[in-house]
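Morning run. Coffee first, then this:
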Amino acid sequence: MVALCDVSLEVAAGEVLGVVGASGAGKSSLIKVLACLQRASAGEVYWQGVRVDHLSEGQLRPWRHLVQVVFQEPGSSFNPRHTVGFALREAFSVQKKRLGGGEVLENERLRTLFSLVGLPFSQEFLSRRICEFSGGQRQRLSLARALAVQPKVLLLDEPVASLDVPVRRRFLQCLNELVSTTGLGVLVVTHDLSILDNVAHRVLVLLAGRVVEEGPWSQVRRFPLHPYTSALLDASRDVLRWQRFFLPAPSGCAFRLACPWVSPACLSDPQLQSIQQQRVACFHPLVGNISREKLVQP
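And here it is:
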């Protein structure tokens, strides 16, 4: 089974790229490949023009700090036996070795990190274990640990899926401030399009492991070209409805079994084509004055 096929993307400094799609679209697999946590059977991963996906683990080690991953469940990515202070100082020690063993002002750096992610700094706070924090605090601590090694790119896998609305809003505001102040490049994977409204510059829409639409988020939000993107936007308040009834087609366009505009051409695989600022893989892109309501099945 192919998890990803013909996916090409780049993340620039100071840019937030959203990757959206229903469960099983290949979003988490994409993050693992980009972070070189999983080797792809084909394709290449580059960092500033240098190919890195074929390097051994030892050769990758100096590069690892530049690209950090914040996983969907931060509690499981921390060692439950260690305190938060130990986990963050461990990240500092890795960087200290990379910098040649120079002295690191840990408390000052911890204070700066906590300020960046909007958490109070205290020794009592650092002495707790990850299980003693709320979901929002765990997510911020996970973000702080990723930032501890001064990365250039952050890969976020469903970063607010387990958070309630107020905590989600604060986390996204924190992320927005980080991008504007530090120039981080960020890739955010999500199935919830609403979280991209305040943070994303561009969006990549995945369907059955393929890119079906790409473009500036503000443009795609207003004028989706692919019927699948339109369906995701219209069903954003009821995503499970689409996940329950959508079954990828075994061949041709993966959305053709649910698309009201299906035609014999859809038995073939559509290729990405450029339309103004967007790219779309569809034989019947939504152009002109066609309303999305006409494309949503009852």
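Residues 212-295 form one domain. Good start to the day.
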